[in-house]
Amino acid sequence: MPQFANYPSLKGKTVFITGGAGGIGAETVAAFAAQGARVGFIDMDRPGSEALTTRLEGDVTFEICDLRDIDAVKAAFAALAERLGPATVLVNNAARDDRHDWKDVTAEYWDDRIATNLRHMFFAIQAVAPGMIEAGGGSIINLGSNSWWEAGGGFPVYATAKAAVHGLTRTMARDLGDHRIRVNTVVPGWIMTDRQKELWATPEALEKHRNRQCLPDLVEPVYVARMVVFLASDDAAMCSANNYMVEAGSI
Description:
The protein contains 8 helices and 7 strands. By secondary structure, the protein is α/β, with parallel strands linked by helices. The protein has one domain: Rossmann fold (3-Layer(aba) Sandwich). α1 (23-34) crosses α8 (221-232), α3 packs parallel to α4 and α4 runs parallel beside α5. The mean pLDDT is 95.
């Protein structure tokens, strides 16, 4: 069993996470709760959100919100801040890697996928950053993907959105850096969430993927969460505008 670090700097901190009810998001909520942080997350899945908060110990709460609705996003963060206080950590996690053929993409589908995978990240930062400025600093962690680094096919709008996350991270790291707000991208590889296992993790696909990794083990969501926790902590105080890969050396 792996033994994970405890970060005293996270105890009592307020952390907001998007897409926290399942997958990488749920592992991230659990990881911060275990650090003694005050955690508020946003998700569309009410049963999943309720089940997670029931399972976890600590100060964990949620708001139900469709992240494609920017007014609803702002209202959800305001409600969380009322209960937990302003966040000094924001984790922009929410996304959906739905497969789609480039020949079938319409303008409406393009706009919906960009809204699902990218647009809300900027507006989450816009909503939360003023509180971080007032607090004297903070940490923003955006979740990217190594799918476009690997030139993966089958989801061109998703890959475009995830590539754009890196531009968002670097420009916001510059704009917010004077306020001691750090902005970084965590870049997962193929992470073995329940969704991936149910939809795409066939024995053949897994064997092919193992052959591309330097390490022989498949990557579980907890390892992405641990990188996020590190970047939120004071241990990462001089880390900003960079990519942090969690993909077992995938090539």
